[in-house]
Amino acid sequence: MQKPSPTQIQKELNIGDFIVSKTDLKGKIIYGNKMFIKISGYSESELLGQPHSILRHPDMPKIIFKFLWDRIQNKQEIFAYVKNLCKDGAYYWVFANVTATTDENGQIRDFHSVRRKPSQKAMDIIPNLYSQLLSAERSGGIDASKILLERTLKEQGVDYDGFILNLQQ
């Protein structure tokens, strides 16, 4: 499936909206709730079996997804701000909580994500930060982006989780 060309059209979630999806261990979509399907612009049949990265907006720095995958593959919960790409090229921002679902033996079965509307405080900071991270990636690769993110967190005097959660309050 070909990815759409991004536009400048933004879709926004309402305060009470929740997007829920599940992926298999390789990141292929195995479930999406009605809100997920609606905002993405894809039909359920178009989404199921596709890699979740079908929604990845080119404005998203790779370091954020590397951090996310590192955490969930170690069965650690993560919160992140994500800019997603819709089928029609529009975009929407989410505050995502991603976790691994484990079976009775403690083995990862799938990944579960619940997303909601990000705070205005986060939207005042995150797009600019991600633009800087993306610029660092383009010139120096993912390692340059990681260094910039770590330096930003150190300057704020917080770890990643503290930074992200504080922006949502």
Query: How much β-strand is present in the residues?
Result: 15-25%
Structural class: alpha+beta
Shape: globular
Number of H- or I-type helical stretches? 6
Q: Major β-sheet, in short?
A: 5 strands, antiparallel
In helices, the fraction of residues equals 25-40%
* Whole-number count of domains: 1
Identify the strand order in the major beta sheet: 2-1-5-4-3
What CATH architecture would you give? 2-Layer Sandwich
Number of strands: 5
At the third CATH level, what is the topology name? Beta-Lactamase
CATH superfamily: PAS domain
N- to C-terminal separation?
A: 37 Å
Average pLDDT number: 96
SSE string, helices as H and strands as E: EEHHHEEEHHH
Query: What is the C-level CATH assignment?
Result: Alpha Beta
Q: Provide the low-confidence segments as ranges.
A: none
- The Cα radius of gyration reads 16 Å
Task: Give me the secondary-structure topology.
Elements (H helix, E strand, L loop, with lengths): L18 E5 L5 E4 L1 H7 L3 H4 L14 H12 L4 E8 L5 E12 L5 E9 L3 H4 L2 H31 L3 H9 L1
Antiparallel strand pairs: 1-2, 1-5, 3-4, 4-5
Summarize the structure.
The protein is of the alpha+beta class and 169 residues long. It is built from six helices and five strands. Helices cover 40% and strands 22% of the residues.
Tags for this model:
169 residues, alpha+beta, Beta-Lactamase, five-stranded antiparallel β-sheet, 5 strands, globular
